Structure formats: structure tokens, C-alpha cells
What we know:
The chain is an alpha+beta fold. The protein contains one helix and four strands. The chain has a two-stranded antiparallel sheet with strand order 1-2. A two-stranded antiparallel ribbon has the order 3-4. Strand 1 and strand 2 (36-38) form a beta hairpin. The termini are far apart.
Amino acid sequence: xxxxxxxxxxxxxxxxxxxxxxxxxxxxxxxxxxxxxxxxxxxxxxxxxxxxxxxxxxx
Length: 59
């Protein structure tokens, strides 16, 4: 079984983990309803996508 010869320092471990972070979601405010939603997604309250009715809104 492989065992490390030396302890990994805090700075080396931090360098390795530098890209591991939460990414920001692309949340926008809907122009018609004013609700927040993800871009390129259907607004579930109104059922609109790209200015046209795609599905019946939830009640």
C-alpha cells in the first residue's frame, strides 16, 4: 500500500484545492413577472420561455 513519505503542507494542499469552489449560478430577474429564475430556463409561474407560452402555468 502506498504511504506518503512526508506530511502534505497546508500551502501545498491549498494549491491543489484552489479550483474546488462553488460556482455562481446564472440567476436573472424575469422581465415580465419580476421573479428570479435561471437563465435559459422556463418561468414555471407564467409558463413563458423566450417571450412565448410554452406550458400551462402552475396554480
